[in-house]
Amino acid sequence: MIPAGLARTLAWTLAILTALLASPARADLLAEIEQRGTLIVGVKADVPSWGLLDKASGRIIGLEPDLAKDLAERLGVDLELVPVLSADRVSALERRRVDVVIATLNQTPERSKQLALVSPSYYESGASLLTRRKDGFNDWSELRNRRICSRRGSFYNRPIAVEYGADIVALYSAEIALAALRDGRCDGFLGDTAVFGLMLQDPAMAARYEMTLPALNPTGWAVALRREERGGRLENLISETIIDWLSSGLIGRLEDKWGIPRSDFSRRMEAYWSEHSQRKNH
Fold first, then answer.
1. What pLDDT, on the 0 to 100 scale, is given for residue 212?
2. Which residues form the signal peptide (predicted)?
3. What single DSSP character describes residue 84?
4. What integer pLDDT is reported at residue 25 of this predicted model?
5. Which residues does residue 131 pair with via DSSP β-bridges, in sequence order?
6. In sequence order, which ranges of 39-122 are alpha helices (DSSP H)?
7. Is there a contact between 64 and 44 (Cβ–Cβ < 8 Å)?
8. CATH number of the CATH domain containing 33
9. Model confidence at 23: pLDDT above 50
10. In the chain, where do the E strands start and end?
11. pLDDT tens string 118-165
């Protein structure tokens, strides 16, 4: 029997791939990128190991910048990385500051209307809460009327506020939200299980903070394009590239490279897509 999480992921993938096949190409961003000779990708610059500005070199480094580099190499063009925050990922695409966003962007129905979300997902995470150890949160219901910091643009904010009555304070970046938690201006920091799990690998962080609540709403992370690129050559090429990232084990190797604990998602998707590719080749 296929696990429920995998079934949801595969159903989403099938729906998006079906839409791609049925949708006419309205634009050819790929030709524009090839003519320019540069792929411009929006990535995070405030999330360690996923996308962080290295002050020594002045470069943005991490797992997602590495994916952007791989994509540019496949296109045979140079790469330009542009830092984006959670609050401005959509506008960076819509205002044509970037061609592509690879920036911890969860798939949601609302975003699928705004953007072209390339399928399949290359990663997955759920909502979680980072808290000070002394505060001892045991259940999501304990968030009622508590001041909870988050990031602007996070799709978790409204559901957690509505369902659990949390007083969500949407801040500009993860760095500011963590500082607010550290200084006692918030009772918790709402964010991604994948990001918090990595942060707690640091013994100093683990000594002060914990992530005890069960993950909510596990959702895939999507590479995003402008809505008008839906069904275009670039979307199809990126979809094939993501399948190769998963089937070849590249995602898992990059997790190891950047000190990210191997996720159940990357293991499941590597097994699924490698088997799928073998069946296709035979």
1. 87
2. 1-27
3. -
4. 41
5. 210
6. 63-75, 89-94, 109-114
7. yes
8. 3.40.190.10
9. no
10. 38-43, 46-47, 51-54, 59-61, 78-83, 100-101, 115-132, 147-151, 167-171, 188-192, 209-210, 216-226
11. 999 999 999 999 999 988 889 999 999 999 999 988 888 999 999 999
Token match 């790929």: residue? Answer: 30
190's CB contacts (< 8 A; 6+ apart) are 127, 128, 129, 148, 149, 150, 154, 156, 157, 160, 166, 168
Domain count for the chain, please give it: 2
Q: Which amino acid, residue 75?
A: L
- Show the domain range for 273: 4-124+218-281
CA dihedral 119, 257, 198, 218 (to 10 degrees): 20
Q: Residue 198 — very low, low, confident or very high, per pLDDT cuts 50/70/90?
A: confident
Q: How many CB atoms lie within 10 A of CB 185?
A: 13
- The span from the CA of 33 to the CA of 267, in Å, is 33
pLDDT for position 136: 82
